[in-house]
Structure formats: structure tokens, C-alpha cells
Amino acid sequence: MLRELGTLAMLAAMITAAEDRPAKEPWRWTDEERIRARFSPGSAASRVEEARTADRGAPALSMPRRPKAGRPRTTDADTLIPTDYIDGSLHPELLLPIELFNDLVLSGYSPDPSEDVTEFRRETLGRWREFGLSRDPHDLLLEETAEMVKILRTDRRRARKREPGAAAHAGSTSGSPYLCEASEALRRVQRALGPADYSAFLALLYGTLAPGRRSFSVEPLEKIEADLRSRVRGCE
User: Fold this and answer.
1) What stretches of 80-199 adopt beta strand conformation (E)?
2) Which residue among 93, 126, 151 closes a domain?
3) Global pTM?
4) Residue 87: helix, strand or coil by DSSP?
């Protein structure tokens, strides 16, 4: 009975969230709309249950891990309970532009260039006309992400040498040099492209990167929201 009530509550949360969503393309959402929908009461739990039920390539949802202090756990003391799970093919509007921009830089402008990096960039940015851009954004991105790549290169070198100060590029603490620069770089790209091309650039990110993105979180939702808001603000 309790399980049925819990399922009904999750379904109600999903329906409410769907009703609250603006009827527009995912790349046209504002950051505030994304964050409000992502952290509306019950929505994260409903997405976790949705992923568990559908079993859409989400092995981490049942991956045995030793939980850290303060993190939630299941009845199995060695298995983490995710606090949120976002399938970008189903909920692209919940992903922030800064998250997809970071994915683009890590995969397409890696400090360790390879054929895979070049191919990724070709398959992603090579579709710029399809998404309505008036020009190929590669040269602009190469210039504006140079400092991000430089920080990545330094962090990786420090990590290999196990030096203090090396940050994890994807999950660095808010306010870290890398995430500060990522926020500033995206703002520079926005200014350089102008409104129409920037909208098309976001359409490209949401059309090519979001469908393959799976975001799995075990941190408290309040911390995740605070970190995301900090990333949006940058280091102002």
C-alpha cells in the first residue's frame, strides 16, 4: 500500500512538472526555468524511479559503492541511492547550457588531442548549418576556450604527479579557476555570436550533446542546486 502511494505521488509530481514546463524548445529555456523545474519538489525522485523502472542504461543506479558520511543509502549499506538522474534524451530542458558547453570543451577541445577529439568536433560542430548558424563556430571556440584547455592541461599534469591543487574538471568545486573560466568563456561566446547565432549554437548543443548525456548525482539536492547556481553566476 505504501509503495503504491509513493508511486502515485511520484506520478503526480511528474504530471505537475510537465504542466509547469513552458511550451518551447529546450534550448530556449532560461537558466532559472531549468533550475526551478529540475529541483521542483518530488521531480528528482520521480526521475530516479523512472530510470529504475525503464532500466535505460543506468547501471550506476544499482552500482555497489561505499557511501561517504552523510550520503543517502539503500537497505544495502554498500549501495548508494541516487538523489537525481537526468536522461538528456527525455529531459534536455533540465540541462544547463554551461553543462553542455563543458561537455563540448572536454570532448572536442581536449588538452590531449587525438583522432577521437577531431572526429567528435567534426560530427558535432560540423552540423552548424543544420542548426541555423551563419558561420562555423570552431575558430571562435578554439580562441575562447584556450584558457579552459590550459587549466585542464595543468590540472591533469598535477593529477598525474599527484600534486596538491589538481581539480576534477567535471566536478570541481564551485569557484574553482576552471569553472570560473568556463562561465566567462560561454559569456564571451554569447557576445561574439550575437543573439541569433547564439540561439542557434545552443540549439546545436541541445540537438547533438543533450540526447546522449546521462547525469547521475548522489549529493544532496540542495548542494547540487547551489553549485549549479554558482556555475551560472560564474565568478562575478
Assistant:
1) 84-87
2) 93
3) 0.79
4) strand
C-alpha cell read off for 161: 604527479
Q: How far apart are the first and last CA of the chain?
A: 50
DSSP assignment letter at 212 = G
Asked if residue 177 is part of any domain, the answer here is yes
Q: Are residues 120 and 71 in the same domain?
A: no
pLDDT digits 0-9 by tens, 18-73? 445 557 999 999 999 999 999 999 999 999 988 888 765 554 455 444 445 555 55
If one counts every other C-beta atom within 10 angstroms of the C-beta of residue 135, the result is 11
Secondary structure, 3-state, 31-55: HHHHHHHHCCCCHHHHHHHHHHHHC
Q: How far is CA 227 from CA 11, 100, 127, 153, 171, in A?
A: 27, 16, 31, 23, 10
| 132: alpha, beta or left? (left if phi > 0; alpha if psi -120 to 50) | left
With 90 as the cut, is the pLDDT of residue 199 above it? yes
Same domain, 41 and 67: yes
36 Cβ neighbours under 8 A, 6+ residues apart: 20
Identify whether residues 41 and 131 lie together within a single domain: no
